Amino acid sequence: MLSHARHVALAGVTAVLPFLLSVVPVQATESPSITSSDTGAPPTGATTESSRPVELILSSSSPRQGDTIKVSVRGDLTEGGGGEDRTVSFNGENFKLFGDGTGLSCLLGISPEIEPGKYPVTFGGISKQITVIDGKFPTQHLRLPKKKDNFIASPGEKETIKKAKQIVSAERYWKGKFEKPVKVGRISSVFGIRRIVNGKLLKDYYHSGTDFAAGRGTPIYACAAGKVVVARTGWRLHGNTVCIDHGQGVISIYIHMNSVDVKEGDLVKSGQVIGAVGSTGRASGPHLHFGVYVNNACVNPASWFVKTY
Ligand SMILES: [Zn+2]
Hints:
Elements: H1 8-23, E1 55-58, E2 68-74, E3 87-90, E4 93-96, E5 98-99, E6 104-109, E7 117-123, E8 126-132, E9 139-142, H2 157-165, E10 186-189, E11 194-197, E12 200-201, E13 210-213, E14 219-221, E15 226-232, E16 240-247, E17 250-260, E18 267-268, E19 273-277, E20 287-294, E21 297-299, H3 301-306
Parallel strand pairs: 9-11
Antiparallel strand pairs: 1-2, 2-6, 3-4, 3-7, 5-6, 7-8, 10-13, 11-12, 13-20, 14-19, 15-16, 15-18, 16-17, 17-19, 17-20, 20-21
Bound molecules: zinc ion (ZN).
Zinc ion is lined by residues 6, 189, 207, 209, 211, 289.
């Protein structure tokens, strides 16, 4: 099956997001004082080699649209107050930092909605620049029967998914790379493609995940450990749907499922069966649409199968 066209939700999100971004106040003016040289003279003799300067380290300075980048803060963070609520700012939003054993870090998702160009990433008084590279996503044609060519959702469906993508819980459940949620079958649609449905280009649309085409009933596995935050059946647009919170702003989503074998609140292990492939909702044939969100930004799941974040 060549794919489907779901993502009504997506169309909704892309339409709404620029507005959301525009109302976020330009932040981070109250930068924690991170200089470490203002504490007066160290006691003589005691070589309190305390103050390593604070450093901001980015895993990539030229990410492509769809990439995930890691921002690490290293050095002496004991001064300057700020408690645990320290954040990194990027593209008009603040992102919470978490202790990682060596310092603080967080992940940034470079969604296809972020225009190519230069952007600062800022922590306190330190700023580094990244250059977002065009993802050069291809265009795909597809045909849908007239009755499926709409983006009508069930009541509460879009709202529930929108809320799930915004979860940022402190606990980190995942470890290492993600595993593929479908072990047999092929990838029928990659991340980011634009679509022409029944001859019409979908405006502001991009494919928000990776599609695995497989027979109805093929098991679907959790890509990593986490907590089930959405387990719903009967939705008109997404069909039967599961969302898993992997912690620290990382969420995975599984849609068009034939059956759902977990319930909300369940803790799942990496590789645990959570349901089976189907074609429920706005799907043209059996497949799993698998998506990954990082701090509410839609990213390319494929890089999570090969990289450790
Ligand atoms: Zn899809």
